[in-house]
Amino acid sequence: MTATFSKPLADTPGAKPGSPSPPGRPPGRADLAADLSASLTVFLIALPLSLGIALATGAPLQAGLVAAAVGGLVAGYFGGAPLQVSGPAAGLTVVTAELIQRYGWRTTCAITVLAGCCQLGLAALRTARSALMVSPAIVHGMLAGIGVTIALAQLHIVLGGTPQSSALANVRELPSQLADIHPTALGVSALTLLLLIAWPRLPGRAGQALRKVPAALAAVGTATAVAAVAGLQLPRVDLPSWRSHALPELPEGPVLGLIAAVLTITLVGSVESLLSTVATDKLIASERPTGSRPPRADLDRELRGQGAANIVSGALGGLPITGVAVRSVANVKSGAMSRKSAMLHGFWVVLAAGLLVPVLDLIPLAALAALVMAVGVQMVSITHMRTVTRHREIAVYATTIAAVVLGGVLEGVGVGIAVAVALALHRLARTRITLEERDGVHHLAVRGQLTFLAVPRLSRTLAQIPHKGHVVVELGGSFMDHAAYETLHDWQESHLAHGGSLEVNGPPAEPGARAVPASRTASASASGSGHHCCRPWTPWKNHCDHQPVGDRTHPEAAPVPSASADAGRAGAVTDRDPAGEGAGAAATPRSRGASRLASGITAFQRDTAPHVRDELARLAREGQRPSQLFLTCADSRLVTSMITASGPGDLFTVRNVGNLVPLPGAETGDDSVAAAIEYAVDVLQVDSITVCGHSGCGAMQALLNSAPGEPATPLGRWLRHGRPSLERMDSPHHAWARIAGRLPADAVEQLCLTNVVQQLEHLRAHESVARRLAEGTLELHGMYFHVGEAQAYLLSEGEDFFDCRVFDSVGRRT
């Protein structure tokens, strides 16, 4: 048996044996059939929506069909999101309508071409991800504002009238429109809306069969059929001959106005497309196993595809194009497997535009207006409101909606950004500083970021603390600038020099840093060394011991050993050693560990426990249900939760020296590993078992250096379970492992890799494991963690060689 060390844990396929082959495989007939079926579904949704959006913008109705066809064929082929469907979108309706009113249709087509060129430029500069830095509250507010504007405009058509030029004008004219309702148009619109709402809720088997037809097509089709059979006199779709189709002309108008128009189309179209791409990726990840997913979206390539599509659409007299979430969701849920689905949908639109013109001309405009009005209402999402409210950004959301409705899309986005920046500055400047005395101890609590804006209040509060007392400082923020650091540091030195004691909890203790234990800083400052430990970048802090806790350089600043139940006083720095010089020196080793333990518990109770309490309470009620048995080494450098991004209840972890799995029946006085395997497999019913080795393993080094005749010590007896790994490495019948396409650096690394493979063989010998493997309900994985590189590798099956491919932090192969 041979294997391959493959990609990192974060990119590991979770599909079970027999699942579809990974991305990049040649497409089969089943994939083509799935793409064909999905393309028809998307086409049936896109056809009425494209006509409706063209109607809402005031553009020629053919322009919607042109944009839908180009979005499918061009964006589908060149884009970076295989399952995203592009075409005319409601998000650009208001912008396009305003441009058509101001510059005319042909100039608007030229603006679309220029916007596509700008998108190509942005893609060449690889700025796609920069578009995602816009606050979601602004984006959702922009879309909601556009939805309100669309709904107000289409309401007039639903009532049988004509929309006005702005949202305010539509609101002003609404009373007079309500006084002059056209019953025929209202009846057709009401029928369309009723079917849109009721279609997804049709009960029974018949309803299940009917629901396969998209609600938009069913609603518009039924309304069209009723209007035709009843002979209703209504304005209908009018598709003139393609020979008279309007093409772009050179832009005419104020240069600054044209530039602003191009930038608006570029900004709104790019942001909407990229957000739709991210949403489509998340939908695919949530609904499909890893092995049947297409490649993840390339945002820069997607932006390039959108730019090419807008150039072609504008040149052919079509509407601006973006990625459309509704059609993309339908494409994914219909089982599409590749970009062929989006391209086929564009092909069907071309056929419909050429062959179904007499049928399309029967559609009442009131039915299309009702459809687009429903889309506009859906853009004001209750879910988005709850989300932004939960993140305390409802002010940004509401302001953006109001600005879009009152001023326009570009103005609304600008106002939203300004409000978001102002809110961020307000939160940055809002620092709460409180001082209270409890049981003779002064507690200074700082909540929020410590910047120069808070220095005057901080200085006044510090001046109220008496000398020679004990002070507990709680820093609840995550950032401290230089001015605040100097203020706190100067007061700290003065307080210690006057005989006071001090304990500082929480980050940060130096400007710009986030997590230096301040109690150490106090000790170092008092000793006169001024030395700081490594600048931390993780939640855990005790990974360096340059400054001994019991440093006696300054006899007036020795830490008090504390093992009491009051964890808040652990590690306090006092003015003298109350136990005397000798007692203090003797207790230093014990106090260091006790202080760290107590400080760690304090930090957990303060910072972490509030966030995990609900989840742990649920686990306490329901019991543990881990998905994986994780067997790894006891080495202190392996933080399993960190390298697997797991949390409480995820892993059933077994650690021992050398990540060894004794063979069943082997002579051993320790059955703990076998008991853990039996419990995890038979009782907890885990889905997989992972054996994780690591670089620089001391057990493997000891195994290499051991001699057969050495006296039997507990460590030696345990390491006998690793001898099969040593024999495997020396055997000429097994290929040597390779890591990242290279041979291991030395014999220790070679043995570490070989040991993972050998322990997997030992696992297969356990009865419970063998049974579950035979049933196909259990998977075995090998993993290797290179400590120095902070890189995890998975062991995957190969034919006759070991190999390892390196992936970067986002899972792309390098």
TrEMBL record:
Boundaries of every SLC26A/SulP transporter domain copy: 32-393
Alphabetical list of SMART domains matching this protein: Pro_CA (SM00947)
A Pfam cross-reference name: Sulfate_transp
Bilayer topology annotation: Multi-pass membrane protein
Biased composition (Low complexity): 513-530
Annotated family: Belongs to the beta-class carbonic anhydrase family.
Protein name in the entry: SulP family inorganic anion transporter
